[in-house]
Amino acid sequence: MATRDIYETAFDEDVQTDAESNQCPECDGRVTTNAVETVCEDCGLVIKEQRLDHGPEWRGFDEDERDRTGAPLTAARHDRGLSTEIGHGTDANGNELSVQKRRRLARMRREQTRGRFQSKAERNLAHGLGEVHRLASALELSESIRDQACQLFKSAQNEDLLCGRSIEAIAAASVHGACRCNGRSQLLDDIMTVATVAESRVTNAYKTLNQELGLPAKPVRPTMYIPRLASDLDCPERIRRRARVLAEAAEEAGVTTGVHPAGFAAACLYTAGQEQGWWVTQCAVAESGNVTPTTVRAHYETLKEQVA
Known about the structure:
By secondary structure, the chain is mainly α. The protein contains twelve helices and three strands. A three-stranded antiparallel beta sheet has the order 1-2-3, with no helix packed on it. β1 and β2 (about 35-40) form a beta hairpin. The protein starts with a helix and ends with a helix. Residues about 1-20 have low confidence and may be disordered.
């Protein structure tokens, strides 16, 4: 018996099968079913669709206590999470393996590592995504921002933006771009504290990503930095609310255009502290915003003129 007689079609092929016994509820026409949908051939009415659920089965079964599912597909890995890991030392029951089996598993593990990447580009992608994972973990970013940064790195590689640039710089720029697109008040200096490349390379890589990919980066406003700087300085709630009011009023007046947003936010906190009798030095707020006391002092004078 030939193989085609046993397996006539694949389970996910869009191939028409025999007509069902029931008729179309609209026109009594002939109804056929494929792997995607059940449709009437005469009027085109779709009766059923998505017969096969290709997603994971997240239900749990208490009787056998087994989870018939694996990890979900993710864009944060070069193989979308479909990799296989070969363990060390023990079997599934925790029993120690013999020397012969350990040697065989070592050979299998070596061959699996060699065959894991099909090309140099895939190897670079795995290295870049691993760097994005490291940066996101060090900065305590959410999984959604991490996945967006990974997707941004993939887009950069597909557009051949890695040529002439280091993988670490593109990875750091992807993290910075994902934070900017989500409106997160993440300073570039914070990323540079955990990055392994120079700041000039990351800045150049981010400019390239922004120009070539057209990132929907949101404008950074001083109000975005108020909660973060207030948390670093342990400001009272009344100081934080007053600083936010000052920052919003300055944004509406247009005096924040072209200024350092973190430095202006630090000046708002300093101004609010002076008004409410909460004494904090200019050096302290300047250090929290990663600016100089001169910047804070200049913005403080601008805020005094606006309030007056």
